[in-house]
Design goal:
This protein has 5 helices and 8 strands, in the order βαβαβββαβαβαβ.
Length: 220
């Protein structure tokens, strides 16, 4: 089973002069993972994230301290209920289908901090319910969980999803691209049947990831 351990970084710095423009630019560059229009990063950038101290604008980190590690792996069937109780209780009260769902998650110690689901429908695979606890966002954990999901589920098969408009750049960096709503597999399309033809009205865009249509660097 593929697994990935990622350091969580905290930092401390003595205050020193730092312009407001520099602060904003630095924060924008680190916020990329889940905000449309920002630059996205792979997990290797985590070792540099301690260069900015978020608690007080205008401070620069002079020291970086690793205080833990994040383990990214697939949940076992007995663990699926943890996603419902510990994460999805904050996110549309999702539930897991023990037969058709595979869940991929990030842990720090025994704490479950992020998850993504791949559901097998009769006519295709759907990715949804991607969620990271508020206090762990902006550190690349959603990307790491999605990369694991893609590795396990999307190397040979097409993945479909309904992306929030603001997250299209994030999913685009993982190989997903917009598609016509009418081209979605029927089972997946029917989940949003109540707003057929008006997905933009709820800030949602259908996307797909077809491994056969991707450049090699996005399918390795």
């Amino acid at each position: 089973m593929w697994r990935c351990c990622i350091p969580i970084i905290s930092s401390y710095a003595e205050p020193e002069p730092f312009s407001e423009d520099q602060t904003l630019l630095t924060l924008y560059s680190l916020a990329g993972e889940e905000s449309g229009g920002f630059v996205t990063f792979r997990p290797r950038f985590f070792t540099d994230i301690g260069k900015v101290l978020f608690s007080s604008p205008g401070q620069v980190a002079s020291q970086v301290q690793v205080i833990g590690a994040v383990d990214v792996r697939e949940l076992t069937p007995s663990e699926l209920i943890r996603a419902e109780r510990e994460l999805w209780t904050h996110y549309h009260q999702q539930t897991a289908d023990r037969v058709n769902d595979r869940l991929f998650a990030a842990f720090t110690g025994n704490k479950l901090i992020g998850v993504a689901r791949c559901s097998r429908h009769p006519d295709g695979l759907e990715v949804d319910a991607v969620y990271v606890l508020d206090e762990y966002r902006r550190h690349g954990f959603a990307r790491s969980v999605m990369l694991h999901l893609i590795e396990e589920c999307g190397r040979q098969e097409t993945l479909y999803m309904h992306s929030k408009i603001e997250l299209m750049d994030f999913y685009g960096s993982l190989g997903f691209y917009p598609m016509p709503e009418s081209d979605l597999p029927k089972t997946i399309r029917d989940r949003f049947g109540f707003c057929m033809g008006n997905l933009k009205g709820i800030d949602v865009c259908p996307m797909k990831r077809d491994p056969a249509a991707l450049p090699a660097d996005l399918n390795t």
